[in-house]
Design brief:
two-stranded antiparallel ribbon, globular, mainly alpha
Length: 110
Amino acid sequence: MPGAWDEFEQAVRAVLGHEIAVAAAVRLAERLVAAHGQPLAGPDRDLTHLFPQPAALAVADMTALGISKGRAATLRAIAAAIVADPHLFGAHRGLDETLSGCGRRAGSAS
């Protein structure tokens, strides 16, 4: 994805930001990172945690963070798919191959 350092983080941020204000999406991401990210040994100003790993989010309870049940289920599914195949979002894959790894096909509505 353009501008993404990490494809998993970008996918999570896309789900968090879907159909809500940017400021609200940022707050959800901050809560998610604070709750499930690994704290840095030496924080650098506002940077205190690493973004959560897929294995952590695959089993995370996000209800107390203000993340809707549907959004949380989507995030857990994406994380579980990345745990199962760490290269799922690799640039070497086309759309059909990537979506088939998520249990979907291109053009399917869900």
